[in-house]
Amino acid sequence: xxxxxxxxxxxxxxxxxxTSLALAQTPGPASGQDTKSKxxxxxxxxxxxxxAKKGDEAxxxxxxxxxxxxxxxxxxxxxxxxxxxxxxxxxxxxxxxxDEKKLVxxxxxxxxxxxxxxxxxxxxxxxxxxxxxxxxxYFLASEAGIVDASGVDQTAxxxxxxxxxxxxxxxxxx
Length: 174
What we know:
Layout: H1 2-25, H2 41-44, H3 48-59, E1 63-68, H4 74-89, E2 93-95, E3 102-111, E4 120-130, E5 138-148, H5 152-169
Parallel strand pairs: 1-2, 1-3
Antiparallel strand pairs: 3-4, 4-5
Helix pairs in contact: 4-5
């Protein structure tokens, strides 16, 4: 008998939830509007579309991202430049140097073999959140690896993919 009661309660909760979701999705009169002064249904249909588009644009806010790199090895510099270039083209993130809440990519690179600088670089990436300049930055994640001259593009794309994942995970900070 208790199992039957639990099943009935679960069905009731699901019914209430689905009904409330259906009611939430149907547009109702805005506050302050009189239901009698509502235009004909054929005219009322186009009105909610612009509101939905504005909501979609506000929902797709670009995450501000700064890239910090000050090392001089050639392959590491190409990696940093490629990250910045892809960041500028991104529809999800925007490059910034402003004093604002942002995700900071701290990139450190060194030549793998000091005698052969154009062959490979060892890189270390740390992602930190910065609320403002001069404030303590919060560590989010880190990664290390080796990149050669032919793999710069793939590595930059992979690092920006990880950046986007971290931006969505910690999006509440922005």
